[in-house]
Design a protein that fits this description.
Helix content is about 40%, strand content about 20%. The strands form two sheets. It has a seven-stranded mixed beta sheet with strand order 1-4-5-9-8-7-6. It is elongated, with a radius of gyration of 39 Å. The structure holds adenosine-5'-[phenylalaninyl-phosphate].
């Protein structure tokens, strides 16, 4: 038995020295030291030896086991070192190679269309005024004639914050109040661009985050005619001199009268197509004369001052201009889309 153990140790160690990979090492461990391995079998059979032989064979068997385990650890260490040297060698980086050039950036399509809109309105004497995206319920709704119980709140599904009465604005119209309070009693002519948020299903035409551009003009003799003139000029500057614009009766709690502004469809020239749902017209903005109560909330006397306001979606305008079928492309950051407008 002792001889058998000696033989086993010699064979095992000489096999071990020949191994060159961790997989082979693992196979060796299973073959000798595993549950059904050769050494384990010997250890198990000790019980059948005569009692006087057992201690000696037992001791020797344990010594062999320790020797094999030590040799295994040593070999594993050596193989690991070899492996990491090989990896370092193979994955060597040439840090002296020139880097990949970073291309120049470009403006996002929304920014481009916003800048076109700014250029047209500033030419007509409007200033560009930025107002906060995080708003109070009071500015976003209440001072715009939308009290908490008003059914018009259903038109704007809202992201509320954890702070009572604070929300992400659902439209740029609360900026009207900020502009009025900033300039009252002076006349105002401003556009108020910025992001808006609505807690609604995202579709090809509706995002949960989008830009709006609000327009506001307040003065002593501002009329619906001014609104029509300003907006028609805007549409023609942006989409071409032969554009037609029409005003359709609508309802907003903060304007009276209210209108939707439509433009003849640039895709089919007004003949009717899928984009204009075969009507020949596409809606580009909500608008109206500022409601007397809203003027009052802004500090102006509605007996003396009047004003017009409008609110449009620049992404929808860019979609028309560039024939983009899905609004989700704007903010999904796919360079294949964005690069087309570089
Ligand atoms: C408003 O938000 C009014 N505040 C507009 C207004 C201002 C009326 C001043 C009168 C006076 P409306 O919900 O229709 O209205 O939105 C205006 C424009 O924002 C739409 O025509 C559309 O272009 C854009 N818009 C609205 N919801 C979305 C959306 N989910 N995704 C992308 N654009 C949107």
């Amino acid at each position: 038995m002792l001889e058998q153990l000696d033989q086993l140790k010699e064979t095992a160690l000489s096999e071990l020295r020949e191994l060159s990979s961790m997989e082979a090492l693992n196979r060796w461990r299973v073959a000798y030291l595993g549950r059904k391995g050769s050494l384990t079998n010997v250890l198990r059979s000790i019980g059948q030896l005569p009692a006087e032989e057992r201690p000696l064979v037992g001791q020797e068997a344990n010594r062999v086991k320790l020797a094999l385990e030590e040799a295994l650890d040593e070999m594993a260490g050596a193989l690991k070192r070899e492996e990491s040297v090989r990896l370092l060698e193979e994955e060597r980086l040439d840090v002296t190679l020139p880097g990949r050039p970073v291309g120049p950036g470009w403006l996002h399509l929304s920014t481009q269309i916003l800048r076109e809109i700014y250029a047209i309105f500033t030419e007509m004497g409007f200033q560009v005024l930025e107002t906060p995206e995080v708003e109070s319920d009071i500015n976003n709704f209440q001072l715009l004639n939308i009290p908490p119980y008003h059914p018009a709140r259903d038109m704007w599904s809202t992201f509320y914050t954890t702070r009572e009465g604070v929300l992400l604005r659902t439209h740029t119209s609360p900026g009207q109040l900020r502009a009025m309070r900033m300039y009252c009693p002076e006349p105002v002519r401003a556009i108020l661009p910025g992001k808006c948020y609505r807690y609604e299903a995202v579709t090809a035409r509706a995002e949960f985050m989008f830009y709006q551009v609000e327009g506001l003009a307040i003065g002593r003799h501002v009329t619906m005619g001014d609104l029509k003139g300003v907006f028609t000029n805007f549409a023609r500057k942006l989409f071409g001199a032969d554009r037609r614009v029409r005003f359709r009766c609508s309802y907003f709690p903060f304007t009276e009268p209210s209108a939707e502004i439509d433009m003849d469809c640039i895709i089919c020239g007004g003949k009717g197509c899928r984009v204009c749902k075969h009507t020949g017209w596409v809606e580009i903005s909500g608008a109206g004369m500022v409601h007397p109560q809203v003027l009052r909330n802004g500090g102006y006397d509605p007996e003396v001052y009047t004003g017009f306001a409008f609110g449009m979606g620049p992404e929808r305008i860019a979609m028309l201009k560039h024939r983009i079928e899905d609004i989700r492309y704007f903010f999904s950051n796919d360079l294949r889309f964005l690069r087309q407008f570089a």
